[in-house]
Design goal:
CATH class of the largest domain: Alpha Beta
Radius of gyration: 20 Å
CATH superfamily of the largest domain: AF0625-like
Helix content: 25-40%
Number of helices: 9
Strand order of the largest sheet: 4-7-5-6
Strand content: 15-25%
């Protein structure tokens, strides 16, 4: 949790109120609690988090507890101001110069391992929105990969949005508390979206979606998550896929040189990161085809073929 972020602390309050927590230590002037049922810690970080790299290692070094994954409780801001619950994995694909600190945290051109819980928690979030009467007032959506900080373990953000009139909504916080409690097994259950619980055979049969193209809220990729039982890794918006068409009038998008731009690097790092987060799984790209021009779509298909990354439609993720 982030102390200056009311949408973060209200989620933390809702979780603590459900009991089962024991205060354990103070890390970088922030209180922390451990849960009695599961190896889950809640850290009340005293500052904002986007520019705070290596928080996983910093918590481990100061608490003696090995951090395996990170879930940030956060606010979501959008100019539309529409109420929403949203979640996403993180990184700064498509930005350059690669290696520099990005405006909203993280390292330009780099991505963080996606938390494997992402897709299953989206489906549970949608259910919680119904159970708490947030739908249709609240939009239930994913976002594409964006912003920092930079960490070395699987990570995602879960958020209440999209303006200060919604950040302190208790009903939204309780909906997220349901997802977190059930998702991490704090309610006594088995948990949701834990990749480590799968056998090798189950992992080999699992379909993991790498979304490519579309807008920031990725409606077509969201449809795949909602309509199937797929897992999900990075989701790349069109703005992270900058592509320049060759100037040669005779250039053929099927046989000519590939277009320049950050798009190749974005897909490559997102693919490698997703494979690393889901060892043994079938990673399959899902293209928002309508968001690309024909020549761009051909370029993406050629790169995917070169990377041995199959492209699927919704039915292929069942």
């Amino acid at each position: 949790m982030s102390q200056p972020d009311i949408a973060s602390t209200i989620q933390g309050d809702a979780l603590l109120a459900r009991g089962g927590w024991t205060e354990v230590t103070t890390v970088e002037n922030g209180r922390s609690w451990a849960h009695d049922r599961k190896p889950v810690h809640l850290w009340w970080f005293p500052e904002r988090v986007l520019m705070e790299d290596n928080l996983d290692e910093r918590y481990s070094d100061n608490s003696g507890v090995k951090v395996k994954e990170v879930i940030f409780l956060s606010r979501h801001f959008a100019a539309s101001g529409l109420p929403s619950l949203t979640l996403h994995v993180i990184g700064v694909p498509g930005e350059s110069p690669v290696g520099e600190t990005a405006e909203f945290g993280g390292i330009k051109g780099e991505v963080v391992l996606p938390n494997p819980r992402f897709a299953e928690w989206y489906r549970r979030m949608h259910k919680a929105g119904i159970e708490h009467g947030l739908i249709p007032e609240f939009d239930m959506t994913i976002e594409t990969t964006h912003h920092g900080p930079s960490l070395s373990v699987p990570t995602m953000f879960i958020e209440i949005g999209s303006s200060e009139t919604h950040w302190d909504r208790r009903d939204a916080a309780e909906a997220w508390a349901d997802v977190i409690s059930e998702g991490l097994g704090l309610d006594g259950g088995h948990g949701l979206g834990d990749w480590d619980d799968l056998s090798t055979e189950q992992r080999r049969e699992a379909k993991v979606m790498l979304g490519i193209g579309g807008g920031h809220y990725a409606p077509r990729h969201t449809d795949v998550i909602r309509k199937t039982n797929c897992w999900a890794g990075h989701q790349l918006a069109l703005y992270a896929l900058e592509m320049t068409r060759p100037e040669d009038e005779d250039w053929d998008p099927i046989t000519g040189v590939l277009p320049t731009g950050q798009w190749q690097h974005s897909i490559e790092v997102a693919f490698e990161s997703t494979k690393q987060a889901f060892p043994d799984a079938q990673v399959i790209a899902h293209l928002d085809r309508k968001s690309f021009k024909g020549w761009q779509r051909q370029a993406v298909k050629r790169l995917c073929e070169r990377l041995d990354l199959p492209i699927g439609r919704t039915k292929d993720f069942d």
